Amino acid sequence: MGNRPDEIFKAVTRAIIGKRLWPGSKLSEQTLVDIFNVSHAVLRQAIIRLADDGLVTMERNRGAFVSRLNYREAMEIYYALTMLEQGVIGQLVGRMDARGWGELRRHIEAQYNAVDDKNDALLDALWSGFHEVLVKLSGNRVVKEIHAQLIRRTALMRALVCSRFGFCGLLRDHDALVDLLEAGKVTEAQQLIDTYHRIVVRGYILDENIEPVMTPREALEPYVENVQQQKFVANWNTEFDGARRSCQYLN
């Protein structure tokens, strides 16, 4: 049957990251129950997990809403990312092999290609994805999970208007960071990470009057269909395997 709370968590998270569910969007419990065709108990498990991640805010007697971040909260998230990534950098230098450096370089190349293709949606994903790759290469599962949670929360920021920095400058910083790491210049690389995140967080313009541009049903529709298709394939494979075993038994 699959892990339904996990499927709902991933679908709502993807809708937030994909800028389909905007900060302040109300997540009506009955609406989500109908969309995902689950019980209220199952849905609440997913909502609690989203709230634990900071993506959803629970308000007494009002229900659940996609979280709105203020500037102070945004600063705290990026300071936490800075500290984690600086620690990772200190461990990577002198330990990473050619395959790891190659993965980072290929990721940067993909970012440049997205710039050339003017694919802003892909670039947005690759931009934060670079830092996830960096942390993944540390091999520390706990740090990776904490970092991934913080990255998901930055999606709430990226849903807001941002106009004080350009992707090209940040991309050049990615390039420079890898150069510093390969040269073993840990302190300079850690300083660049700090400067990078300060530029990012100060580049956001918070608009507390943002209104949702689509209903939760419209926002979640692509991801609900994907979940249903995955379940159909899984069920079909199970039935096919069962039929094949029956045929083998008869033969």
- The total count of strands amounts to 3
Instruction: Indicate how many domains the architecture comprises.
Output: 2
- Helical amount: over 70%
Helix-strand pattern = HEHHEEHHHHHHH
CATH homologous superfamily grouping of the largest domain: GntR ligand-binding domain-like
Give the SSE map.
Blueprint: H1 4-17, E1 26-27, H2 29-36, H3 40-52, E2 56-59, E3 63-66, H4 71-92, H5 98-116, H6 120-136, H7 141-158, H8 167-182, H9 186-202, H10 216-250
Antiparallel strand pairs: 1-3, 2-3
Helix pairs in contact: 1-3, 1-10, 2-10, 4-7, 4-9, 5-6, 5-8, 6-7, 8-9
Describe the structure.
By secondary structure, the chain is mainly alpha-helical. The chain folds into two domains: 1-68, Arc Repressor Mutant, subunit A; 71-202, GntR ligand-binding domain-like (Four Helix Bundle (Hemerythrin (Met), subunit A)), CATH 1.20.120. It has ten helices and three strands. It has helices spanning 4-17, 29-36, 40-52, 71-92, 98-116, 120-136, 141-158, 167-182, 186-202, 216-250; strands at 26-27, 56-59, 63-66. Strands 1-3-2 form a three-stranded antiparallel β-sheet. Strand 2 (56-59) and strand 3 (63-66) form a beta hairpin. Helix 1 crosses helix 3 (40-52) and helix 1 crosses helix 10. It is elongated. It starts with a helix and ends with a helix. Residues 229-240 and 243-251 have low confidence and may be disordered.
